[in-house]
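Major facilitator superfamily (MFS) profile domain-containing protein: structure, please.
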Amino acid sequence: MIQIVFWNSLGFLFFGFIVSYVPIQLFGASGSEMGLIVSLQAFGRLLSTPLIGYLTDRVSKKKLVMVGALGRCISYIMYYLSIVLHSIPLFGAGIFTQGVLVGFFWPPFNSLVAEKSNKYFRSEAYGKRSSMIGWGSLAGSAFSFSVFTLAHHFIPDKLLIVYSPFLIFAVINIFAGLYFYRNVDEHYSFAEFKKEKIFSYNSDRNEQSELVIKNSSEGLPTQMESNKMSKKFLGAFFLLTLALMASRMNDTLAEPFLQVYLIENIIQNPTLVMLIYFPAQITSLLMAPYMGKICDRINPRVGILFLSCIGGAMTWFLIQTSSPVVFSLLLTFDFTFARANLLLMENVLSRTSQLHRGKIFGMAEWMKLLGGFFGPNIGGLVWDRVDHRAPFIISIFVEIFLVPLYWVSIFFLKPFMAEKVGKNSIIVN
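Here you go.
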């Protein structure tokens, strides 16, 4: 099932580079204008995510994933045309369109990952998804990096060729969506798999069979889920989504300006900036399954404390160095630990409810998008009016603020978990 994200993610890093490079370097936008442009994606998803969360639990998840793949195709074509026509409004419209339509992809896809994975290995499952994104990004960035570098060096005025990878990635997204729709069985879950295993055990394995039957309740709705959610649960879940919003705002405060900061303060060649930025992103994605294994075995609150402290330290060192090599190494660690934090949170969210996973992911995604809308705009304002290091310094303080917010929300949410993982839980393969 996760093979689709290899094909859908081919253009992720190229888009990530272009969305930061084009507005300022090609269109001459200010930091505030770039922040507004970047935030249009979050704004578009803010509008569509409530509907997507509602639909995820009611209609075919495969159809929603197909809509998301189609949306990425349309937005890539709009990016290409906006650059060729030198139209910043069309570029912004492409980002907004991507936000509205690509939002249909991730909530149903993440819900399917949760349904098809064992709760004891949930972070690892999401890590394997991220790893597949990494392999796709590696292949896609190798292709787009080669085209962009060669065309930018020999025929820089031929924008039709320099940015042509967008058209290739657009077509591939359509084929990937169709492949997913035709080949994935969305009705076959891990709970069904466990039921099949229970009835396949031989009589001489009664003890093991009883243990599996005892644990098989994870495929059934709990009494709490069959009733109305309590006020305590809603309050705890609101605190968790508030933390997710602040975390996403923290990420988008600085990340859109990383490449611009590199170009203006450390290295001016966009090709060399790619060589710094792409490996850091790809390495963090390929490390995700291993980080997921670790996240499955540690207390989420301990993990958050450690990862937040490391993340803040990495950000501080980033803006203190003038070495491209050191910057690349620090960025790799920063991205890797940030992704591990995301895996921890996705694990917690996936175990909060079984009957309402789509809505849970939808609501959490909406709050993260709210943070994703405010983050680039705040970052752009302080970039223009304070200092080019200001977005990064602010993000360090936000990272520290997140620790107690996550701790409190997880503490009060734990009694309501539909899937609980104890310290001494026995894992049955």
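Notes: Confidence is low (pLDDT under 50) at residues 201-228, 422-429.
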